[in-house]
Specification:
Helix content: 25-40%
Structural class: alpha/beta
Number of helices: 14
Bound molecules: iron/sulfur cluster
Shape: globular
Number of strands: 17
CATH topology of the largest domain: Rossmann fold
Amino acid sequence: MTTSKKRVVVARQQGGEGAGVTTRRAMEQLEWPPKGALRGRVLIKPNLLVLRPASSGATTDPDIVRTVVQMSLDAGASEVVVAESSNWGVDTDAAFEALGYGKLARETGCRLLNLKEDSFVEVEVDGQFMKRFLMPRTLIEADYVINVAKMKAHRMTYVTFGLKNMGVGSHNDDQKEEMHRIGNYAVLSDEVMDRGSGLDHNIVSVNLACRCDLTVVDGLVAQEGPGAPLTGGPVPAGLIVAGYDRVGTDVVTSTIMGIDPTTVPHMVLAHQAGLGEIDIGKLQLGGVPLEDIDVSFEPAINLDPGSFAPPGVEVVVGRACYACLGDLAYFIKRHADELAQLAPATIYVGKVGPVKPPMERRHLVFFGNCAGEHLYGGGFATGCPPRSRRQVFQSLGALDLYTSDENIDLSR
Ligand code: SF4
């Protein structure tokens, strides 16, 4: 029997069963591995964004990866490499050890690879903004690639599952930062305003450059709300989604989260680029029926950042893309107490047109390059979007109020 490439399976954790049992059930229902598919080197790409455990909703559960490693070896892989590049400023080797992957490697015999330290090869693709860039050699040369992503909301791209995990999680720090920024300014043009941030396009470019044979999405504990995908709220959804079609698997995961996949720009762009199926009606669904799943998620993107502002803090929103809106909503929600100490204050975001800020505002900040075009007094958090929360406090003249608790570089 030939396994359908359109098959996507949802498995639900039952009772107190371990993550490995649920994973194995998903893989078996998917009829994985396809006959004769596994040979040579298998590369598994988890999401170890930051040093937070799987129970926080931020990172891939090591017991899911352990099961995939074991099943790959049983199916004939000559070598299994678990490869990751954590968030910029985060030590991937430390993440491997802290999150249980060091133990996993010692016990299964797989190899851990810090992708930030891999050698890189230049690739060329027909992307919107990124046409030539560097990719890790081990990823490009792998014989079979399994993407073990996490189910999370995302403040720049609505959601992050398989496409995003591969699209931005595979590079060194400099390239990651570029991918979050290249093209953002261009998307404010009339032609492409509705098509997402530059990041959405760059995710597709990277996916065009590498294979992805299987996607497994860890939704045992997912993450929601402003702050996701780093510091959002955990959602114990108890689900694993697995499929061969990288777009189709994301489409099913997005539907589970209650987000219409046709409103997620990078999914639409990936489908248009020929990377997979966006029409859920054309996928072959298996496992738990979607109508039997009842989980709700708070989005990470809020197009009205001012709704989180404390009294006395005014937010003026101009023509802005998701990148600035999402980051600013997170900034304000997270630092509402500190901002309250600065009231009265005004924050401008996006192309706001010529402004004459109220003179009595002691604290005034233009958030992002678009707003800075009409700078008139006040502080300017440069960037597209601004690089760090620290930088915004600096622009507000209140660096003493900045604190970080993410176990990542203090410049963030
Ligand atoms: S400055 Fe902000 S709103 Fe303007 S394009 Fe860049 S990220 Fe988008």
